[in-house]
Every structure is written in C-alpha cells, then in structure tokens.
Amino acid sequence: MAKIGIGIIGTGSIVNTYVKCIEEIENAELIALYTKSSSRVAAVEKHFGVPVFDDIDKLLALSEIQLICVCNESGNHGSAILKAAAAGKHILSEKPLEVTPEKIDEVIESCKKHNVILGCVLQNRCSKDYMLAEKTIKEGKLGKLLMGNAHINWYRNKEYYATNPWRGTKRIDGGAAFMNQGIHTIDLLLNLMGGVKSVFGNVKTMVHSIEGEDVGIGVLNFESGAIGTITGGTALYPGYSERLEIYGEKGSILLEGGSIIQWNVQDSDKPVSIAAVSDGSGASDPTSIGHQNHKTVIQDMIGAINENRKPLVDGAEAKKAVEVITAFYRSSEEEKLIKI
Ligand SMILES: NC(=O)c1ccc[n+]([C@@H]2O[C@H](COP(=O)([O-])OP(=O)(O)OC[C@H]3O[C@@H](n4cnc5c(N)ncnc54)[C@H](O)[C@@H]3O)[C@@H](O)[C@H]2O)c1
Fold first, then answer.
1. Model confidence at 299, in pLDDT bands (50, 70, 90)?
2. Residue-range domains of the chain with CATH
3. Which of 36, 52, 73 to mutate to test the pocket of ligand 1 (most atoms within 8 A of CB)?
4. Distance between CA atoms of 178 and 198, rounded to whole angstroms?
5. pLDDT of 91-127, one tens digit each?
6. Cα–Cα distance between 304 and 170 in angstroms, integer?
7. Closest C-alpha to ligand 1, atom 30
8. What is the pTM of this model?
C-alpha cells in the first residue's frame, strides 16, 4: 500500500496527537515538521526523530509530502494553508479552519484554484455515539426537529492562557470559549439541526485576563423553524462534560461527553452499541482529549486523497460553526439579532 507522506506545520501541544495517529496508520508516514521558532528546531527534531525546519518553504518543497497538517495557532491557519495550497499539497487543518468566515472563503478559493483537497479536523463528528444519533436524526426518526441545545460549560485555569499568549486573543484565537473550545459541539449541533437563519448572542469576559469570552450564551433560529440555545465558557469551574440535546416531535436524544445518555425515540429501539468509553471530553483539561477520533479523521483524509473525493468535513462544512460563532460575537457587541 503506497504511503501518503505527511508534513506538519506547528509544534504545539496538539502535534503529539498527530504524531501518535500517523505512527498507527499503516499508509501514512511523517516526513517533517515546521516551527516558526528557530530555537525549537533541535529539541523538536530530537523529540520526534524527523527533520524540523524553521523555513516553511523548505518543508513545502519536499516532494515526498502530499499532505500538510496545519496545527499552528488558529488565526495563522489561513496563511499556512495558502502557502501549502500554492505548493500543491493537500491540506488537513485543525479547527477552526480560520477565525472569520471571510478568511475561510479565501482558503477555500485558493484550494479550489490549486486543485488540492481541503479538510478540517472537527473530530467529534467521528464519535461512535454521535454517529448513531446523527444517522437516526437524519433518517427523520425524531420527526420534525423542535429544539437543539449545546452546552460546553468548561474550565481552563489561568496557566492555560498564561503559558501560550495567543490563546484568548481576538486576532489569533478568534475569541475564546466558543471559538476554541465550544466549536466542536456547536459544529455537531449545526450538523444535526441544519441551516441557521438568525442568532442572538451575549458573551462576556468575567474571570480570565483575556480579550475573548470566558462565559457566553447564544440563541439560534434555524431555517427549519426549530430553535436552539448554546451555553459555553472556560471559567465555569470545575468544567462539566459537554452536552448536546436534540428534541423532535417523536422523541429526543441527549449526549454527554460524546456518549448517549438518553435515547427516547418513539419508532427506534435504543441502539445496542453505545460506546462504553468516550474519546475524552477536555472539560477541564485539554490534554485529556483522546486520539482515536483524530486518527479516524486523518484516515478519512488519506482516503479522500486516494479516491479524489470530499473529506468528512470540507471547507464549506467547517465554515458553518465559525459563521455562527462570529455572529454571536457581533450580536453581543451590537446588542441585536444577527441574520446569517
Ligand atoms: N481538535 C482538537 O481537539 C484540538 C485540541 C487542541 C488544539 N487544537 C487546535 O490546534 C491548534 C494549535 O493548538 P495547540 O494547543 O497545539 O497550541 P499551542 O499553543 O500548544 O502551540 C501553538 C504554536 O505555538 C508555538 N509554540 C508552542 N509551544 C511553544 C514553545 N514552548 N516555545 C515556542 N513556541 C511554542 C508553536 O509554533 C505552535 O505551533 C489550534 O488551532 C487549536 O485550536 C485542536
């Protein structure tokens, strides 16, 4: 089986997850990494045992690399993607794909122009229980959808923001609790509930010394006529497992920490294969997020390259949550309902 050569942009905490996944995937091979800090080159090379460049062009010039994984700070994803696309590499970017819908449009266009595949890592879409719920809901077994709620009432300590100063900044993190942590569950909610017509948001910075919000709420009006709410935060001690609630005319399904906790669907038996163990929720500790769902996303991306098809989450899909989150921010600032 021909191996896909992979290069990684960024050398932060999430990169360990990628290296572990690539090691476990038979038809994937880690070729090299890029770090913007020259002082880190030697240490990272020693740690991962592959070449590390502090010149992005040198990484992108390697012909053995077909796929670039973009793992740097969120608001720097776009510039990395534009360079990788121009070099003819397929791209799998960490979430959020970029921090504004406009920047996302720009990278989607560039990938189209250079004929490369663009995927985004929103790995909770691969959680087994979520997929069971998704299948049932998309088959219409809940009937007309009435209400969808997402609660990501998480906690991050002061050190989380202090150690890496891009976190919580508006320009590079794109905000904070919703854009960085909440985005996963917001993406799941939108994937199940469909298009959004308008939102009202109220976000605040109440505990941490950051620009972005550490507490926030949002109200959603879906195109279908259904309604929804989102609550989130990184100041909500001790941090509870994220929760997703979908209510329809014929029943409801509730998930917590990626696992189904309530299944009350009139025409559908409770599924037998409910995951016994979730892939880690990260409610209070970002390092507790498991790597299995990332592995599935990388395998899917390799499949997309080999079969020349769309990846699980393409640019247009990845844009949806960012569009809603930035609309919450605007709504909060302008104190009005925002049409999407
Ligand atoms: N999908 C997920 O569940 C998940 C989880 C964590 C992070 N992420 C995403 O991954 C991206 C990177 O996040 P992260 O948590 O790895 O960021 P991070 O703060 O650990 O690292 C980000 C960048 O900062 C620099 N950096 C990190 N440690 C450094 C050090 N000791 N000295 C000098 N420079 C250093 C590196 O350039 C690195 O690429 C973000 O877009 C984030 O949203 C996704």
1. very high
2. 4-121+293-314 (3.40.50.720), 125-285 (3.30.360.10)
3. 73
4. 17
5. 999 999 999 999 999 999 999 999 999 999 999 999 9
6. 33
7. 12
8. 0.96
